[in-house]
Amino acid sequence: MTRNNNNELTVRSYGRTELATFYFPKMNPEAAWHKLRSWLGLNPRLSYLYAKRTRSFTPAEVSLIFSELGEP
To answer: At residue 51, does pLDDT exceed 80?
Structure first.
């Protein structure tokens, strides 16, 4: 995990399980991804990411996730 001087996560491209394990560090990566994916599906601004089939999020998508869900 990369944090800047203000102890905030750096907005960059993240793999989906990498990002999910930041939100759910005590879960195994696959379970963490399924839980994050369900959160994405419940949020109207993030629901398009629920169906996304790529294995990573762009910096713009990560920024949107952070603004909607808060930083992990």
So the answer is: yes
C-alpha–C-alpha distance, residues 55 and 37, integer Å: 12
Q: Which residue has the tokens 């949107």?
A: 64
Buried b / exposed e across 4-34, counting CB within 10 Å, b at 16+?
A: eeeeebebeebebbbbbbebbeeeeeeebbe
Instruction: Fill in the amino acid letter for 46.
Output: L
CA distances from 18 to 12, 42, 44 (A): 12, 20, 23
**Which residue carries 């991804």 as its tokens?**
33
Q: How far apart are CA 35 and CA 23, in angstroms?
A: 9
CA angle in degrees (0–180, nearest 5) for 69-28-6: 40
Q: What is the pLDDT of residue 34?
A: 96
